[in-house]
Amino acid sequence: MTTTTTPPYRPGRIVSGSGLPALLTDSPDAVPLRPQSPEPACLLTERQLREELLPRWRDGVRRQARALVRRARGALDGPGATAPYERLDEPAQRRAALVAELFRDGATSANAERVDGLALQRHVAGALSAAEPPRFELAWGQPKRDVGGLKTAGRWADLAEVYAVGRLVALVLAARELSGDERFGMTVYSGGNRFAAALFAEPELLLEYDRQRCRIADALGGPGAVDFRDFADAKRADPAEQEAHEARVREQLAALTDADVDAQMPVMLFNVDWPRVLPMAAAGEATHGVEMAPHVARWLAESPDDRTPLLTRAAVTCAVSPALRERWAEVFGGRMDMLDDAVAFAVAVGRASAARYTAIARADRGAPGALSGGPHTVRLTVHEKRDRPDVPALLTLGVRGGGLLSQHVVARVPAEGPVVFASVAETLVQAPESAPVLLVPDGGEGVVPDGSEPAAAGPSDGGDGGADDGAGRLLDWLVRERQPLCFASGSEPSVRRALAHILDPDRG
């Protein structure tokens, strides 16, 4: 069986991807050219999600938090403990050290062994003594990109996102316990609009994705534990700062080298919003100044809904692995000129996107105070900063997820063993027996929703007439879009049991 290896965590990396490039390069013949649609492994009603899974997920988050608290206290007080902290005889400093110790745990932070614990203790102590409630700050997250079905199974938050958000909620609950401050929370600044000039993400899609993540966090930990805001809206609201930011981006673009751009390829090809870019290009817009060949534009414009995902898969996969060119040529009826011009367009747009993405990231890094929320905040990251050992780099998908981020992957729940995170293509190649888990409306057992009518907003039909502790109609967006919750293998009862334990630190 063909296997791929998820890229290891690498300090300093800007973009997190998946094992897709390795799969395309090393095993191109294993990748199906057209999306596969296996029969669902399991159908779950919204009621089953609400009544069977959600309570277990909440309990799993609380169990994670208790485990974090035990490990932090044990590291500080256990036999032979060596802690890089100061003034531990002072209660306030001791509480700050305990919170800092959360991030010297290898199960929490990719840079646990390199974190400057003393500097982090001082940050936490300052946050706890500030007038405003203490908060962690984390810049992370964009809506999913399906890349024609290669990368994810849709654009909305799914089980991988639930898993990642649950880990953040557990961190907050642990920090509240260790600090003795129930006001402790976390603000996540999503990067959708921050990098929209590079990736062409749709503004409304970005807002909806953050609303979904807020609902997940509230359902798992209650309101106030973790909230989500748009980075650009929060950090560049001032017109003067926006102008200064654009000037910094121009400076960084001018300073980029080919090696800088190469470092972000081909991963960047999987992050561009191609369902938006390709129709724009077919309509005559030069995205990033790159024009689509007229014959490709005409072909695409004839049936954009059907041909956009097909062209996305063909162009991106051939750009990463030229060995696929002959197979794709058969799909295009021998039109090598069509395929080659589409690939050339994707590569040019991808390189321009990689350049702008890198310039934006570097411009923000050099902005005076741009990532500082004030003395009551403690900064976290998902991409380790080599020059900032006082900033923990979170493993949002745990140790097994490495440097992966939930927006780039789907979750697979095996019949036996722990959850696995990978792209859809990797999932179906590595575990061909796996199939989607779909959510259906209440009363829809055995019925796959046709997506013709959006699920109506409204209260839960739980016994209290709608107040179900923050759950609402959690993940109802997956019902509307017919997007899988995850992939799984095994009998339906075993899948449901495995899903119930997904956030349990001992069994998930």
Features:
single chain, five-stranded mixed sheet, 19 helices, 9 strands, globular, disordered N terminus
The gist of it:
The protein has 508 residues and is an alpha/beta fold. Helices cover 46% and strands 8% of the residues.
Q: What fraction strand? A: 5-15%
Helix content: 40-55%
Along the chain, the helix and strand elements come as HEHHHEHEHHEHHHHHHHHEHEEHEHEH
Biggest sheet features:
5 strands, mixed
**What Rg, in angstroms, do the CA atoms define?**
23 Å
Q: How many β-strands, per DSSP?
A: 9
Reading side by side through the largest sheet, how are the strands ordered? 1-8-9-6-7
Runs with pLDDT <50, length 5+? 1-6, 446-470
Number of H- or I-type helical stretches: 19
> Cα distance, first to last residue?
25 Å
Mean pLDDT: 88
Identify the overall geometry. globular
What structural class do you assign from the helix and strand content?
alpha/beta
